[in-house]
Amino acid sequence: MALTTSTNSDADILLDETAVADLICHSVRTIQKWRATGQGPQFFKLGRSVRYRRGDILTWIECNRRPNTASRSRRAARTRAWRAPPRASATVPCGGIPP
Fold this sequence. Notes:
By secondary structure, this protein is an alpha+beta fold. The chain contains 4 helices and 4 strands. The protein has a domain at 2-66: Winged helix-like DNA-binding domain superfamily/Winged helix DNA-binding domain (Arc Repressor Mutant, subunit A), CATH 1.10.10.10.
């Protein structure tokens, strides 16, 4: 089920978790788990309902794009962070999570 905000832009359309799960080919349960652990895309909490802005989902997908399988994901970078030397202050591109 998709809801629209006051503007009719495709990026502003609000999607429920079922629509997001269909869009990114994952289960609703995986979307819920990501939301609980802070790994997934940003969301809105409207009363008891959870909604995702379509533009945020597409941005999140782009932020998770890798050029090859050897590229480290953000999750792998976090689990290996104890071994890595501290980074100089860098810009954080995708929703506040370092690449």
